């Protein structure tokens, strides 16, 4: 069966512009006469020349998407293994541990104004320096103490 269609009808059928049809005709798309197209012949040409290319492009896109999916899946599995091995910790856990350490420093610094006056009363400059150094060292040691996520310090904290 032969279905003769106008340029506009063919353009509407393929959802393209009239200019695109002109370009197709230049590329070898069969045309009966000016403004007349055999829709079956145009469709067959389209399948061989454009549709097949689109399918190949979609196949390539699908291959790329699958590859990306499997890469991401592999990364996720690596993270799960690291988490099970306790090589990873959650952000919430890090924030909690960090907040605890900062609280130790803040409280140690805040208490210095009450602790130091009686300790320093009647002391000379060198004794005062040693007392302050010792208090600061105590705050540092409390901050850097070994914990669940912090190993023991390799060397002592000196000022």
Approximate strand percentage: under 5%
Structural class: mainly alpha
**What fold name stands as the CATH topology of the largest domain?**
Arc Repressor Mutant, subunit A
What spatial form do the alpha-carbon principal axes imply?
Answer: rod-shaped
Number of strands: 2
Q: Give the SSE string.
A: EHHEHHH
Computed CA radius of gyration, to the nearest angstrom? 39 Å
Task: Tell me the domain tally.
Answer: 2
CATH first level of the largest domain: Mainly Alpha
Report how far the terminal alpha carbons are from each other: 96 Å
Q: What ranges have pLDDT less than 50 throughout 5 or more consecutive residues?
A: none
Architecture of the largest domain, according to CATH? Orthogonal Bundle
Main-sheet strand order equals 1-2
Residues in helix, %: over 70%
Mean pLDDT: 87
* Fourth-tier CATH superfamily name of the largest domain: Winged helix-like DNA-binding domain superfamily/Winged helix DNA-binding domain
Oligomeric state, counting identical vs distinct chains: single chain
Number of alpha- plus pi-helical segments: 5
Main sheet properties: 2 strands, antiparallel
């Amino acid at each position: 069966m032969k279905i003769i269609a106008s340029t506009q009808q063919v353009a509407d059928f393929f959802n393209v512009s009239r200019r695109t049809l002109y370009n197709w005709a230049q590329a070898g798309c069969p045309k009966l006469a000016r403004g007349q197209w055999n829709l079956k012949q145009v469709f067959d040409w389209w399948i061989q020349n454009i549709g097949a290319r689109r399918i190949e492009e979609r196949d390539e896109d699908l291959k790329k998407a699958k590859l990306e999916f499997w890469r991401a899946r592999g990364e996720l599995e690596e993270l799960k293994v690291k988490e099970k091995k306790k090589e990873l910790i959650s952000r919430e856990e890090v924030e909690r541990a960090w907040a605890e350490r900062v609280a130790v420093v803040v409280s140690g610094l805040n208490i210095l104004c009450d602790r130091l006056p009686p300790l320093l009363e009647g002391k000379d400059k060198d004794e005062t320096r040693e007392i302050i150094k010792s208090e600061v060292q105590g705050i540092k040691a409390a901050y850097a103490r070994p914990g669940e996520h912090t190993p023991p310090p390799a060397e002592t904290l000196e000022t």
